[in-house]
């Protein structure tokens, strides 16, 4: 196994006949590489799935990057961890014979935030993203990314205490400014994945 693949992860090969779009599953704080496998199955049962564990520990809980406080991100660490994750995904593409750049990131909370950072900083790794309970990763987003071929879904709750409506609106505006084809699927709940939006997302993956 190559050094860059040397982090805990799950890879599932997907359907042999007509594999779906490859999914990169990114868990929330305190989760692990197994957390979102059922979600991947629900969204696109024939897809290859790559699900890494976040490489940062906060009080014993795995995350994808450091934060200074709730909602206050360490942007230097976010940049470094984003590059580390992008390199891991490229190595996994070669190891598991998945077209590089075809991955759709599906992230929840901290996983959604590093998925946004991947889009903004390393767009060549992804073809799109589904962001659940997502926040704004960078106060000033990196400039220069061209997301015009990237389809992005943002599904935040109207009562999410960590992602207020203004924050969701800012994230959506930042991604649209980079050219992303963006669809919003809001729901009335909080910091969660609302099952009522999953059919529409599954349809988009088909
Ligand atoms: C979390 O608890 O994971 C936060 O809401 C999101 C983050 O820190 O990235």
Overview of this protein structure:
The protein has 5 helices and 11 strands, in the order ββαβββββαβαββαβα. It is of the alpha/beta class. It has one domain: Rossmann fold (3-Layer(aba) Sandwich). The protein has a 7-stranded mixed β-sheet, covered by helices on one side. A two-stranded antiparallel sheet has the order 4-5. Strands 6-7 form a two-stranded antiparallel ribbon. Helix 2 packs across helix 3. The longest helix has 22 residues. The chain binds D-malate (MLT). D-malate binds next to helix 3.
What is the topological layout?
Blueprint: E1 9-12, E2 23-26, H1 37-43, E3 49-52, E4 56-58, E5 61-63, E6 67-69, E7 72-73, H2 75-96, E8 103-108, H3 110-121, E9 126-132, E10 151-155, H4 165-177, E11 181-184, H5 198-205
Bound molecules: D-malate (MLT).
- As an assembly, this protein is single chain
Shape: globular
Radius of gyration, taken over Cα atoms and rounded to an integer in Å: 15 Å
Order of helices and strands: EEHEEEEEHEHEEHEH
- Spans of at least 5 consecutive residues whose pLDDT stays below 50 are none
What level of helicity do the residues show? 25-40%
**Class computed from helices, strands and strand pairing:** alpha/beta
What is the total domain count?
1
CATH topology: Rossmann fold
Helix count from the secondary structure assignment = 5
Largest sheet: 7 strands, mixed
Task: Supply the CATH superfamily name.
Answer: Alpha/Beta hydrolase fold, catalytic domain
Q: Total number of β-strand segments?
A: 11
Query: For the terminal residues, how far apart are their CA atoms?
Result: 32 Å
Strand order of the largest sheet: 1-3-2-8-9-10-11
| Assigned CATH architecture | 3-Layer(aba) Sandwich
Bound molecules: D-malate
Q: For this structure, what is the CATH class?
A: Alpha Beta
| Overall pLDDT metric | 96
- Beta-sheet strand percentage? 15-25%
């Amino acid at each position: 196994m190559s050094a860059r693949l040397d982090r805990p992860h799950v890879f599932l090969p997907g359907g042999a006949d007509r594999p779906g779009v490859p999914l990169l599953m990114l868990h929330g704080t305190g989760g692990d590489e197994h957390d979102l496998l059922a979600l991947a199955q629900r969204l696109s049962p024939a897809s290859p799935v790559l699900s890494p564990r976040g490489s940062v520990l906060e009080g014993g809980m795995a995350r994808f990057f450091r934060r200074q406080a709730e909602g206050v991100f360490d942007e230097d660490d976010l940049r470094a961890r984003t590059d580390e994750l992008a390199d891991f995904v490229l190595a996994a593409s070669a190891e598991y014979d998945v077209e590089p750049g075809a991955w759709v990131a599906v992230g929840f909370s901290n996983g959604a935030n590093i998925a946004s950072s991947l889009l903004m900083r390393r767009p060549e790794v992804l073809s799109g993203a589904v962001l659940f309970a997502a926040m704004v990763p960078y106060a000033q987003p990196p400039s220069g990314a061209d997301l015009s071929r990237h389809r992005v879904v943002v599904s935040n709750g109207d009562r999410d205490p960590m992602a207020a409506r203004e924050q969701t609106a800012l994230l959506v505006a930042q991604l649209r400014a980079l050219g992303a084809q963006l669809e919003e699927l809001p729901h009335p709940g909080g910091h969660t994945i609302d099952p009522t939006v999953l059919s529409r997302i599954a349809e988009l993956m088909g």
